[in-house]
Amino acid sequence: MQSFINRMLGAAKLDVATYEEVEHDHSATGQAALVVALASLAAGIGALGAGGGLSFLVIATVGALLGWLIWAAIIWFVGTKLLPQRQTEANIGQLLRTMGFAASPGLLRIFEILPLIGGLIALIVAIWMLVTMIVAIRQALDYDNTLRAVGVCVVGWVIQLVIMWLIGGLVGFGDAGPVTGSTI
I need a surface site. Which of 54, 84, 137, 154 has the fewest CB within 10 A? Predict the structure, then answer.
């Protein structure tokens, strides 16, 4: 069994064996939540350079954890009920674990605080996290087709953004919901 740090590195390196390990390790759900929280904190710290404050840090962390839960549930439904393959067999816990570790590159978002290159870092990390999320979804849903995982990822992400936007509006954050709630 890999250590927590090795799992994060493996997930960031798109190591399929790492995703398979966390998918089947029921005790890794807390670790996955910790990865999401750490990535959210890193993003909040990175946003301090753009004028974000402590309240943004708290909102971003809570929003990202909520977004992770919602996105995993949506991905489970879309991936197992609407677009499954013959061999697809997954539960929400497997998706929470793989998708949580897919947020590992998000720790680098702390460097978004750097002037001049922060925006470039944000773009690179966002693309990297999208790719890790696709691999996580492909593995958790037992797909043999990456394009199907891309489709499920995009559909789930759009639905999650709408839900987070609605939640943000209900609690008084206007259109900040999708931005703070998104894990990528």
Answer: 54
Tens digits of per-residue pLDDT, 25-83?
999 999 999 999 999 888 888 877 666 677 777 777 777 788 888 889 999 999 999 99
Helix-helix angle 16-24:92-101, to 10 degrees: 140
For residue 3, the 8-state DSSP code is: -
Structure tokens at 50: 């753009």
For 17, 21, 46, 50, the CA distances from 141, given in Å and listed in that order, are: 14, 14, 32, 38
Cα-based angle 79, 82, 87 (whole degrees, multiple of 5): 55
The tally of domains found in the chain comes to 1
Q: Supply the pTM of this predicted model.
A: 0.85
Tell me: pLDDT of 130 over 60.
yes
Please tell me the number of Cα atoms within 13 Å of 50 on its side-chain side. Answer: 16
Domain residue limits at 98:
4-181
Distance CA 33, CA 19 (A): 15
| The two three-digit tokens of residue 35, written as one number | 């990865």
